[in-house]
Amino acid sequence: MNVQSAPRPKEDRAPRVSGLPSLTGLRFFAAMAVFLYHVTSSQLTPFGGGTAQQAGRILGVAGGLGVAFFFILSGFILTWSARPDDAPRRFLRRRLVKLYPNHLVTFVLALVVFAGATGWKTWLPNILLVQTWSWDPAVSFGVNGPSWSLGCELVFYLCFPLLYRWIRSIGPRRLWAWACAFLAAVMALPALAYAALAGGPTMPGLPVNAVQSWFVYQLPPVRMLEFVLGMLMARIVLTDRWIGVRIHHALALCAVGYVVALHVPFLYTLSATWAIPIALLIPAVAVADVQGRRSPFRGRVMTWLGEVSFAFYLLQASVLTGGAVLLADHRPFGTMAALGLCLLAWALILASAHVLHLLVERPAMSHWSRPRAAGRHGARTAPPVQDAAVDRVGTS
């Protein structure tokens, strides 16, 4: 069907553009936000002096933006692509195959980078993706730091069948009220953490203690609020309750949110500041794809970048940490040399992500995510449109 003539999405209608290519492309910008946060952090930055401080201040809030985007996107795309008759077992199989192959490869790579200098109390929770339940940063960020978010995603996947049943039971007229309630909860949690979890030593380089940071940033039930918010936004679009926000409106709101994040207390920069802009941006981009309107995130290059973004996200900490160790005796560098090193690190991570996606992620999804038919020849069943869409957009 010609995308230009695609009608507006209706209740229980399958997406008209396979994979929502603009959301695929947008994923890479979220992964880039996390990269910019890491490469300018005090432990890894190649910059020195005032430049390092300024870069860390401006880009230090970008990590929260990227992770919040991934969690809201995950709820949105799984709901967008869900089928009421899909068995929970088949759903979980597809999701685990999406997560674990890349996770296991980057887990081993991280052990090599750190020369295996982690005890079993650190690496065992990490490989099982339960590390995010610990408020000890040595455990929750242990081995391959970014994989903590996969621990949250695993919880979301386990809860999705029940959550989806509940979301579908909400009448279309009440969806916006529920979305506003979850937005309010996300925005109120930092105040709760500041009031109820104060005291104790602060984390190195952060103005909060470990429990406060963990509660707002890593605790799965707390981050599930954003996941459910994404589910609600998908239902709003699918039931024709979207308010017509366009991509450029949502991007402008994201820019305003970024400025606000530079001037609010730290815990608000982890998710609260981004909830409204991202909750509007993702549906706006999806609707643009469905209606065939212009999108800056669609195209062959953007789609490829989005497809490798999961691998890019998981690889960056090991590459940047390995580089920091190798160059420890030479840091800090001048501004131009530091910029060159950042660009080199970005290119190396991107090339490695392409290899990981090509040799691990895609073959694993192709081989294990689709159940075999019960026919005498053992042929595989063709994946439905919804499965293809969610696996292409994916989660991180």
Secondary structure blueprint with pairings:
Layout: H1 21-39, H2 49-59, H3 62-81, H4 88-113, H5 120-127, H6 137-140, H7 148-169, H8 175-196, H9 210-217, H10 220-238, H11 247-261, H12 275-291, H13 300-307, H14 309-326, H15 335-368, H16 385-393
- The overall pLDDT average reads 88
The radius of gyration over CA amounts to 21 Å
The helix-strand sequence is HHHHHHHHHHHHHHHH
**What proportion strand?**
under 5%
Distance between the termini: 30 Å
Fraction of residues in helix: 55-70%
Gross morphology is: globular
Helical segment count: 16
Sequence stretches where pLDDT stays below 50 over 5 or more residues = 1-17, 373-396
Would you kindly provide a brief summary of this structure?
This protein has 396 residues and is mainly α. The chain contains 16 helices and no strands. The two termini are 30 Å apart.
List keywords for this structure.
396 residues, mainly alpha, 66% helix, globular, disordered N terminus, disordered C terminus
3D architecture notes:
There is one protein chain. The protein is mainly α.
